[in-house]
């Protein structure tokens, strides 16, 4: 990956890429104690809180990515965070795309988001956590990725010290791009649970398959011309594609029910 001009981390949850060409190292990040975890929060995106979020801008993550991260493609509209993919010559690419990441790292707890994914083959709408070598930590990651070739399912995965291969596809009734859905994972030292619309869709109990390092939270929308087998053959529709995020939340271990719809209000 290219070096970040802003010295922030850029993460990527792509098992297919890792298998094809090794690990694509994300961009450099602001330094902070890896053992510290940010406090619980709920963000309904009435604005972009720059104390919480950093907007990726001015680079791409490598030849697999056909767009350049651009702050112009990150905005608040209609009370939601909007990430767009548009045809616009930006940097080394003919397309521009949007991504945000937290400025802090977060540890064990519950991670939740309510969003609608973009439409289009060759696009990836992602909600994930990541930390890696540029932060002097192993590559750990937990993913929800909706691939444009089939918006009726979401790919779950996690990396532990750069080792992935834990993919599972979970159905999203009605299509992830046709309406808003709730995605959540509960990360504990000895258990990792994934939920879609309040339903448990994956439970991991093998400690060797559960990340241990505090990570940053990411939302991203990007495209590819090369990973068509995984994401679908890219075809630009002629109109911007948009990922809409209504809410993001982190509930630290030991806390619960920060907002009424939280999965922590409904389970033990």
Task: Return the string of H and E elements.
Answer: HEEEEEEEEEEEEEEEHE
Distance between the termini: 41 Å
Structural class: mainly beta
- Binned strand content: 35-45%
Under the CATH scheme, the architecture is Sandwich
Into how many domains do the coordinates divide? 1
Q: What's the alpha carbon Rg, rounded to whole Å?
A: 17 Å
CATH topology: Jelly Rolls
> Residue share in helices?
under 10%
Which CATH top level class fits?
A: Mainly Beta
Helix segment tally: 2
The major β-sheet equals: 16 strands, mixed
How does the overall form come out from the CA principal axes?
A: globular
Count the E strands. Answer: 16
Mean pLDDT: 89
Family: Belongs to the glycosyl hydrolase 16 family.
InterPro entries: Beta-glucanase-like, Beta_glucanase, ConA-like_dom_sf, GH16_AS, Glycosyl_Hydrlase_16
Signal peptide: 1-31
Organism: Rhizobium miluonense
Folded structure, characterized:
The protein has 268 residues and is mainly β. It has a single domain, classed as Jelly Rolls. The chain contains 2 helices and 16 strands. The protein has helices spanning 15-21, 228-231; strands spanning 41-43, 53-55, 67-69, 74-77, 80-90, 93-102, 109-116, 123-131, 140-147, 153-159, 168-171, 181-187, 192-196, 199-204, 216-223, 241-252. It has a 16-stranded mixed β-sheet that branches. It is globular and about 45 Å long. The chain starts with 14 loop residues before the first helix and ends in a 16-residue tail after the last strand.
